[in-house]
Amino acid sequence: MNDESQKEKLRQHFARRVTTQARVVLDTWQKIHEDRDKAAAHRNEFAAAADKLVRYAQRFEMDSHARAGQTTLELINQWEPGSALDDSLERRLQDAIETLSQSTLRRTDLNSSESPHQFRRTPVYIALANQEMASRLIRQLEFFGFRASAFANADELTEACALHKPETILVDVNFGGSANAGITTIEHLQERHDTPIPIIFMSDEDGSIETRLQASRCGGEEFFYPAVDPGQLIEKIETYTHGNTVEPYKVLVLDDSRAQAKYMETVLKKAGMTAHIITDPMQIIHALEEFSPEIIILDMYMPGCTGMEIARVIRQQDRFHSVPIIYLSAEEDVSKQLHAMSLGGDDFLTKPIDPKHLIATIHNRGRRARSLLALMIRDSLTGLFNHTHTLHLLDQEIVRARQKDQSLCFAMIDIDYFKKVNDTFGHPIGDRVLRSLSMFLKQRLRKTDHIGRYGGEEFAIILPNTRPSDARNVLNEIRERFSELQQPAGDREFNVTFSCGIAAWNDDTSQALCERADRALYSSKELGRNCVTVADS
């Protein structure tokens, strides 16, 4: 290797370090942007990341990164440590971050007129021999809000993982040129991390059981043979990223012993669960309504009533008919335990309680309860709320908006010419379009918003504490971005648009609100589709 090529390799190495640090700054801003209540806690981390970026960029003479980092750092210094981030400063920081994100774009992106993407906190790494496929995947992933990077060789991938552990890696089993070289690379990578990285393997040539076993043993969650199109891969990548966030279980504990109740609360909170403790069985109805638990723990014997009697009262309410109930007691008679469970209980733990046993039981019961609940309230194709549950949520949000005197919007979306998509490309591709829109909406709307599949190609969105103008702006931006997304269909690609109608709650019923949104949607269709219409108040 001559001196010039060595210098070029060093330059590329330093450029990657600066770009990686720039993305750390972007990731930290994303944390602040996603949860304003905890913004102050990330302020010092944000400042340290920006300062490091400036020093790296100046050292390696990357002027655009240095300028953007310096501007960001100066603005952070105007943010008083421990205080909330005010709106004016947030807007200026957002402008600086967008300038920085433009600096991190690859050369192939610099001619793009698109606004910078808001990336997820953790990257997705692509290690494929087929660079055209890798580039195509990255474009698609970035549309869905992921930050994705492709690597040309094992050394680059290893270096990137050392700097920033990815959320998942998509890798060809032969990445590197030789048979199963990709699997060998992943084996070495996994040894460097305390917790395994979810891996999606793909192969055009080898689907043997020996290769599949080797891939599975080093963290392979999926194995595609023969290779599949980008649409299917993105759905799987989404499973190991967006789906990783698990809400803590909500556990209601009824125990007449205050000391035992506090002990249970400490154990549950230490395990990351949300606990609500009551010591008076006569408060059970109020606690159920206020807390809406996912799991209930009952002491078997209490003054005035038994846990079995309380369980029967709970089971008389349809809403809590399938919520797991776990009994606690010093009772060791198996026949009495079985009798207790026949009266509404699901499990029985004997005092003194082993914390590990308790947590394991709650996790097992909780996972199953959530799975059963999802089957009842979610659409099986998209994972969104079904029609019935969406209307139930709308009723709840109307009650909340009335109590808190807040605004509320309801939107209906309909995919344009969806029948033509099914007729032209087939129903499996049509189903993938529905799933891609559901992913798009989930990743661009707030956690407090509710998204449902209303039926067929229709979607419904509930936007609490949102004014009509804000709802229109958000959904219009989503509409524009979704219309740019290339939908894969074998060797072909096509675009899909949607129409939208929005209605603001005006102290009317949920039925009236739905009807106004539906009429606004119809107006969008009459205006030529691919637009957003807000209903008159």
From TrEMBL:
<feature type="modified residue" description="4-aspartylphosphate">
    <location>
        <position position="172"/>
    </location>
</feature>
<dbReference type="GO" id="GO:1902201">
    <property type="term" value="P:negative regulation of bacterial-type flagellum-dependent cell motility"/>
</dbReference>
<feature type="domain" description="Response regulatory">
    <location>
        <begin position="123"/>
        <end position="241"/>
    </location>
</feature>
<feature type="domain" description="GGDEF">
    <location>
        <begin position="406"/>
        <end position="537"/>
    </location>
</feature>
<dbReference type="InterPro" id="IPR050469">
    <property type="entry name" value="Diguanylate_Cyclase"/>
</dbReference>
<dbReference type="Pfam" id="PF00990">
    <property type="entry name" value="GGDEF"/>
</dbReference>
<dbReference type="InterPro" id="IPR011006">
    <property type="entry name" value="CheY-like_superfamily"/>
</dbReference>
<dbReference type="InterPro" id="IPR001789">
    <property type="entry name" value="Sig_transdc_resp-reg_receiver"/>
</dbReference>
<dbReference type="GO" id="GO:0000160">
    <property type="term" value="P:phosphorelay signal transduction system"/>
</dbReference>
<feature type="domain" description="Response regulatory">
    <location>
        <begin position="250"/>
        <end position="366"/>
    </location>
</feature>
<keyword id="KW-0597">Phosphoprotein</keyword>
<dbReference type="InterPro" id="IPR029787">
    <property type="entry name" value="Nucleotide_cyclase"/>
</dbReference>
<dbReference type="InterPro" id="IPR043128">
    <property type="entry name" value="Rev_trsase/Diguanyl_cyclase"/>
</dbReference>
<dbReference type="GO" id="GO:0005886">
    <property type="term" value="C:plasma membrane"/>
</dbReference>
<dbReference type="GO" id="GO:0043709">
    <property type="term" value="P:cell adhesion involved in single-species biofilm formation"/>
</dbReference>
<feature type="modified residue" description="4-aspartylphosphate">
    <location>
        <position position="299"/>
    </location>
</feature>
<protein>
    <recommendedName>
        <fullName>diguanylate cyclase</fullName>
        <ecNumber>2.7.7.65</ecNumber>
    </recommendedName>
</protein>
<dbReference type="Pfam" id="PF00072">
    <property type="entry name" value="Response_reg"/>
</dbReference>
<dbReference type="GO" id="GO:0052621">
    <property type="term" value="F:diguanylate cyclase activity"/>
</dbReference>
<dbReference type="InterPro" id="IPR000160">
    <property type="entry name" value="GGDEF_dom"/>
</dbReference>
